[in-house]
Amino acid sequence: MTSSAGPSERVVRGPVVPTAAARAVQQTLGVDDVRLSGGVLGRLQDVNRHASIPLGLEQLETAGNLDNLRLAAGSAGTDVSADTDASVTGEFRGPVFMDSDLYKQLEAVAWDVGRIPDPALAEFITASAKLLTDVQLDDGYLNSYIQTVDPRGRYENLSFTHEMYCAGHLIQAAVASARVGGDPQLLEVARRFADHLVEVFLRGEHPGIDGHPEVETALVELYRLTGERAYLDLASRFVERRGVGSIGDPPNRNRGARYLQDHLPVREADTLVGHAVRALYLEAAIVDLYLETGDESLLECSVRRWEDMVATKTYLTGGLGSRHAQEAFGDRYELPPDRAYAETCAAIASIHWSWRLLLATGEAKYADLIERTLYNAFAASTSVDGLRFFYVNPLQRRPDHYEADDPGRRREWFECACCPPNIMRLVSSLGHYVATHTSGAVYIHQFVPGTVRAPLSSGPVELTVRTDLPWSGQVTITVDQGPEGEWTLALRVPSWSTTTRARVGDEPAPVEPDEHGYLLLTRDWQRGDTVTFELDLTPRLVHPHPRIDAVRGTVALERGPLVYCFEQVDQPDGIEVADLAIAPGARLRPVEAEHGGVGRTVVIEVEATALAGDPVAGLPYRSGPRDADRPGREVVATAIPHFQWDNRDGGAMRVWMPRLPFHG
Amino acid sequence: MTSSAGPSERVVRGPVVPTAAARAVQQTLGVDDVRLSGGVLGRLQDVNRHASIPLGLEQLETAGNLDNLRLAAGSAGTDVSADTDASVTGEFRGPVFMDSDLYKQLEAVAWDVGRIPDPALAEFITASAKLLTDVQLDDGYLNSYIQTVDPRGRYENLSFTHEMYCAGHLIQAAVASARVGGDPQLLEVARRFADHLVEVFLRGEHPGIDGHPEVETALVELYRLTGERAYLDLASRFVERRGVGSIGDPPNRNRGARYLQDHLPVREADTLVGHAVRALYLEAAIVDLYLETGDESLLECSVRRWEDMVATKTYLTGGLGSRHAQEAFGDRYELPPDRAYAETCAAIASIHWSWRLLLATGEAKYADLIERTLYNAFAASTSVDGLRFFYVNPLQRRPDHYEADDPGRRREWFECACCPPNIMRLVSSLGHYVATHTSGAVYIHQFVPGTVRAPLSSGPVELTVRTDLPWSGQVTITVDQGPEGEWTLALRVPSWSTTTRARVGDEPAPVEPDEHGYLLLTRDWQRGDTVTFELDLTPRLVHPHPRIDAVRGTVALERGPLVYCFEQVDQPDGIEVADLAIAPGARLRPVEAEHGGVGRTVVIEVEATALAGDPVAGLPYRSGPRDADRPGREVVATAIPHFQWDNRDGGAMRVWMPRLPFHG
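Predict the joint structure of the above. Result:
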């Protein structure tokens, strides 16, 4: 197989790099183009590099991911890290998709090395590539589970074996490594596997698709990197095969066609159903295919589902997936805060999808959802120290919380460890999601302190962004370099900012966003010019749509991009979170704080009423409301950003608070 | 093994018959002592006999339960029904507890034959007993799964194999058959198995308990029937072994100690957790043991958990179990109406438990919960025609309802078919749960048209009860026979009846219930005397406890013992159930109706507001409430008794309705 076109000239060190021919209305930037120097997201990157990634690498040994591959290589001596003496005798360990943890980890490492070089990390990629080369079969196939446990089962049970899901993550890791100039051997392994998939599933007769979408976006990226059209065609083939009965009745009936997104052809489905992460990865692929093929019907159906998801199936935090059972989307407006699943991987997948829609349309609403998801559902998934993670991200925890599949607290690792390395690969590539460019404009989607470099057609632009968001509302952007003549600085006006002000130098600029939601500042910019953007961080109470039964009669608290919550540990002595209620006119006072265990934060002191506890006696139903006659006393309750919860004790927490006055 | 005491002299043809020495403050009656001649419960018995039981018998062939036993018997020719020629070659079919479906069916048939003799049904018991004799091993063991699939696995994996759960149902069937004078062979089989269990688990060294409680109550009943103390001791042994690590870490970690009620010793647990049916069966056994042993600590802990369950984990319908996952109880106050599991078997188990507590204490609150459960969670489980069943009993179904494990509509049968035969055995023994007696009083707990016969110490009493409950509120009780001198007629005063009137003959009697909740009418009753009891069927709006987050800001509608719901099919054209809201002062008008498909009913016409649908656009959260400014129009909505829902189409349904006024 030979490339039909060379890679694009400028190497963008980022995870999504549409070709020059693509329908993208904006172009992406690399992790070296956009550097984060602080803020909540920048801090995530530091913690990721210094705590999470080292933990992840260690877990690859502890949990057996590397041993599985060593077993498969039949090479007891193969050793990808100098200080390990793990045995490679024994049996395959963990779930069938163990290889994918390594691949996501490799991708995380690649982006992080692309951000800040590190020979030891680069060596991990090289050593892994060597190991994978040893495991890879002559025909290009590579999967430690199949090779060690079920060699005859290759492609026999695609709804569950994750063989192509793993292949997809291998390909994404290899693309990342190639884009940041890492060891070329990883890309070689990935291409051999991809070529093999092309032989079997595109040129060959195998009618299957993987039960877990993922290889589709990966193949599109591999096409983008290599110019090899067959990869794009194979991705398209896989997407078109969905919903036409490609997956037979799987062994576990609960995990049927809906679970696997094989219930309807992609152009026909109106709403996301089934396993949330699978559904969302598939959507990212659908938009990728639109971008590269120009098939408008793909964009149209995906936008339709995005609108439906946002309006009816999205938690306030951006979390997705209402049910533990099948890790699935629920019915429309089924959004229970307590039993929310809101898997961390679903938040990540949502960002992947929205990002592609942003590239395809240029509309700020996609960046709005990315911001909401990043600062809440996603940021909450990692502890302050970067060493513990949420898989499940509820919006409420009762004092007697129990879930068989979730302790309600972050954990160091998981038997199904899909989330932590997924977090790591997103965090190490966060710069990619901050800004984009067109030929004549730089778009800032997320306001993060740091620098942005973008190649406009008239020449490169360099900007410095200074901001203390999300803690205070001012953003100052300085032009460090720019081409001659006019070009545009485009700033997203966040939907949450009620009153937004802008100045260019000392000159007020009217904040009148264009039809896509961006404030366009077109000037003949000079080095040293500054733009000041004042976003409105007044705390606000938000009310849910009346069809969301599970949070009727409640309010939640937001400030800037942050959703807040009430943790038991912050409340006055003797006041249970469950007895707090808030009036719509309540005084809300932001207070800068350095909470032990939480780090820097701004808490909000809230005028609230603590209702007397209602003693347990008889059925909890009666004629006449029970609230109106309960004595209450005025207290000051304290809310902290939701992403910072569970860094102290394990008490009750809730985002949605009963709204006063009760009535009846 | 020989009996240490003979069976009690008077044979009570009922499922719970404490010994004369037991701590029961009331004595139970048989299915021939209390005959139902109509009403909702009487109608259930008719449909049960003429539709459900025949369907159940057919399913024992279709689903393979009988074939499994024939396989085990190694007797291809054995045939328990004249018109079947099912093959007995092949493999074991269905879940491991398939035998229990037959046993529950046998128990249902036994009670029904005890009610109204039928030679064909009696012959089914005889034929089954023959088959079981053929299957039973020399040492008394009997289990078609173990014998055909895993002969070496006997008692090796008790947390999942249900070997003693099945044994328990066999014993209960045999006790039922013996009490109604059925073929003695079934009791012989059951006793041989019970004696074997005594050898292994009481006299022997095996430390195990069954993962699914059930054998415990059965052993107590077998003790009651036979007087053999070892059965009682074994039941006690099993209960005492719970919560002390008797069940090791089972293969599926999600089904751990909590799921199996092995997390805490029974005297220590404060709240019901884990699999609801298992937890509830265990409680029934705990109270049975109190009754027969007098160990007050058992009654005390079980009452404590009952109070906790009623106050924090019980649905308005009496349904129990908030989670599909693990079919389990949720956290306190976690009572989502849409994702309620409320398994039919849990409603049945709740009735078993409350009934024993009623016998132990004489308190009407237990009969109150039984009534609520019978008329709502339980009655809803069967279709009007008796041919379809709910396993899961939610209080809300959205128009786009989807559950992987439940279609949201009744089904003819189930792969795990525990519920239908469980329904059948309760329905055929319903008379048992209507009335009790003491030496000098007859207690009426449920007001059902029919006759009651009770042996007071001074002589037998016979009563006729005439009532059209739950459709109208009058109950007339006539004394058909009674002994000389004073005796007491005790009538439960239902907690839902706000204004209750009583007359003896034409004489008003003050309705002043005693401390247990019963109106005691002590007279020298004469044949033909009548008591008239006027219960209050004014429809009422009920409000949930403010800690039940899932139904905050809603009201539900009740009338008498019935919970109502709003089905889409009954609403005015163009009005979606999801847009209806009700003010606390709304006019509620009961209307007698004969709804096609539902049968006789009283619907309630409700003054309601239909809010304009809120179009899908953007996130369903915003600053400022969305309800206050939605235009609404006055409509008349229609509610039907919840137990009658889903007898027409499959549209939306809800019990809890948004409460007006919205505010903010």
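DSSP finds 15 helices and 23 strands in chain B.
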